[in-house]
Design brief:
The protein is built from 23 helices and 18 strands. The protein is an alpha/beta fold and 630 residues long. The longest helix is centred in the first third of the chain and has 30 residues. The structure holds (2R)-2,3-dihydroxypropyl phosphate and manganese (II) ion.
Length: 630
């Protein structure tokens, strides 16, 4: 093996610089949780292992210019991958998945959000690239290598050995990492961002082939599970109470339950929603969890319309927009209902136009149905107050009974609001996101109150039931410090964080008395069975007005909340006290969770998520004849 005149070869320099940069991003820019020194160690080595794996390929190029070019471009691509993930992470506290890349239309719509996600100092993340670029152009003689075959094979063998070592440690630290990978953070911290992307690509193509091989034979087992584990014979006293009434469903953007009956700077945040909590015509569910993943609003819609779980990666609205479903609009159609969605954003966002057809909505009033101008819009588009106001005429034009869904927009990250729309002052913390959240939540609260008035004036109110649901969290883990300050806690623990995933859920039935605050654990998966009492349908939730229910709410990443326990980040908590039940087991133990009080539910949750995936990936509802079942 002969090194050139010098020195340090460029592929080694690139490995060191790029590895170091990636490590800094992992450690200080992503908020990756590290529980022990082994995890610290794996996180430290994996950036260098991945970098070496790629850059060492360059030694196989005989021509120096090719070698240099290879290093330049792989370094550029690698840097862009790290950077795009970083920007994405700042918004979603998550890593990019392949299905999301094909959701480009959404990224383009991010508009004002994107600017707040890019920081001036980010330019430093390109410094190593500039240096490698310079060396590869100007100092070729110093940094290019010319190995004999043995040297090349050695470099290759070395990179593969390092990779195997990394995987071995990862598997030891997290058994079955690859088979149970609901959680992207675990993958990234154990095998690194780049190997994670390769893994994601493999999973993606597997999903794509699943539909082709599904033939309906999977169904009996799933139906059996639902019959025994999910469905209940009990019917609630409220059954039929909304028969033939209009259903008005408000998908309220990014609102979390912690704002209900709470204040900021001494001012009530949501006076109108608070009054609904007290209202005798309203059932308010205080332990209602959102169960969304990367598909955000669209996942919340998927859950509520189908009572199926969304995908663990990407947005099922995009990946499976052409499946057959048996959603609320389709079922209500048989009962004589007309259905519509009203949302002043472009129709293709989240692939809604296509998905709504699959869900069999009759009408979709998108952006073009509204008068949108500079005065009446902010952030993502039309403000909620004019949105509701302009929607009334469409509501009046629908034949009754109707099932309609209104999706609000103003209370969306980055929570921009005009001065004139601000009834309360922002909070004061290091997070502008959290600070500005409160005034926009108040704005939405007022918009919903006005909407109630419009409905009354239009004579629609009395004949309708109104459901208000938060779609998902608005304040991500990136703002934990500010959140802790607001909630007057020392820190936001994983337990607190999961509890913050509660979103408001109201069922308001004008004229009905008996409304109250409901304490039981509930979630978006329960909306469909609560709205409809059905025979022969496939769903994973329960009617929220019956006593005997499944008893847990599964989040899409495998975390769950049951009557007694709360399970997150591999820890089982007592739901009532917040205490850890079984202290995290020591590193050497093979399976961390055996003998854990949460274990039986954890297994059921995994099974249930798996069945839901099977239905979606295999497009299995195409094999079910629902007419025959009913
Ligand atoms: C876009 C709106 C927001 O139309 O529903 O989507 P989100 O970013 O919250 O998923
Ligand atoms: Mn949303």
């Amino acid at each position: 093996m002969k090194l050139n005149k010098v020195n340090i070869p460029l592929y080694v320099i690139a490995t060191i610089l790029f590895g170091l940069k990636t490590y800094i991003v992992y450690r200080f820019m992503f908020s990756i949780e590290l529980d022990n020194s082994m995890q610290e160690f794996i996180l430290l080595i994996n950036p260098f292992v991945s970098a070496f794996l790629i850059f060492a390929i360059s030694v196989w190029f005989k021509k120096q210019s090719r070698q240099m070019k290879f290093l330049r471009y792989t370094m550029l691509i690698g840097t862009l991958i790290v950077y795009f993930n970083l920007v994405f992470y700042r918004s979603f506290t998550d890593f990019i998945t392949i299905p999301q890349i094909f959701q480009g239309s959404n990224a383009a719509d991010l508009g004002s959000s994107i600017l707040t996600l890019i920081k001036v100092y980010d330019v430093l993340l390109f410094a190593d690239l500039a240096l490698v670029w310079y060396l590869s152009k100007k100092k070729v003689d110093m940094v290019a290598v010319n190995y004999m075959k043995r040297g090349r094979v050695f470099a290759l063998a070395m990179s593969l050995m390092l990779l195997a070592g990394n995987f071995f440690l990862a598997e030891m630290e997290r058994p079955q990492l690859f088979t149970r990978a609901f959680d992207r953070e675990y993958l990234v911290k154990n095998i690194g961002l780049f190997n994670y992307h390769v893994y994601d690509a493999v999973v993606h193509s597997k999903v794509k082939t699943q539909r082709v091989f599904a033939d309906g034979n999977e169904l009996p087992e799933i139906e059996e599970y639902i019959e025994t584990e999910v469905k209940r014979d009990e019917t609630s006293d409220l059954f039929g109470i909304a028969e033939d009434k209009n259903v008005i469903f408000i998908n309220a953007e990014s609102i979390q339950s912690f704002v209900i009956n709470n204040d900021v700077n001494g001012e009530t945040i949501t006076p109108f929603l608070n009054s609904l909590v007290e209202d005798e015509s309203t059932y308010y569910f205080e332990n209602f969890y959102h169960q969304t993943e990367q598909g955000k609003t669209s996942d919340s819609e998927f859950l509520t319309e189908n009572s199926l779980y969304p995908s663990s990666r990407g947005a099922v609205f995009f990946t499976h927009g052409q499946n057959e479903y048996h959603a609320i609009p389709e079922i209500l159609k048989d009962e004589g209902y007309v259905s519509a969605v009203l949302h002043a954003n472009n129709k293709s966002f989240w692939n809604r136009d296509q998905m709504y057809e699959s869900l069999q909505f009759d009408q979709f009033y998108g952006e073009e149905a509204y008068e949108v101008n500079e005065e009446n819009s902010i952030g993502w588009g039309l403000k909620d107050k004019p949105f509701f106001e302009q929607s009334i005429k469409y509501l009046q034009s629908l034949e009754e009974p109707f099932y309609t869904k209104f999706i609000t927009l103003t209370n969306h990250f980055p929570f921009d609001l005009d001065e004139e729309d601000r009834s309360i002052e922002p909070y004061d913390s290091n997070s502008n996101t959290l600070n500005n959240f409160f005034p926009t939540v108040r704005y939405m609260d007022e918009a919903i109150e006005e909407f109630f008035d419009h409905l009354k004036q239009a004579g629609i109110y009395e004949d309708s039931i109104i459901i208000i649901m938060g779609d998902h969290d608005g304040i991500s883990a990136n703002h934990n410090r500010a959140m802790a300050q607001y909630l007057e806690k020392e820190e936001i623990t994983p337990y607190d964080y999961l509890q913050l995933q509660r979103v408001p859920f109201f069922i308001h039935i004008p004229g009905h008395k008996g409304g109250k605050v409901m304490e039981e654990v509930a979630g978006q998966i329960d909306v469909k069975p609560t709205l409809l009492h059905l025979l022969g349908d496939l769903y994973f939730g329960n009617d929220l007005f019956i006593e005997d229910r499944k008893g847990y709410i599964a989040l899409r990443n495998g975390d769950f909340i049951s009557n007694d326990y709360l399970y997150t980040t591999d820890v089982c908590y007592d739901r009532h006290t917040g205490e850890e039940i079984e202290i995290k087991v020591d590193e050497n133990q093979e399976d961390k969770n055996t003998d854990n009080a949460c274990q039986p539910i954890k297994e059921q949750v995994e099974q249930e998520l798996g069945y839901s995936d099977e239905i979606i990936y295999g497009d299995l509802l195409r094999f079910v004849d629902f007419d025959e079942k009913e």
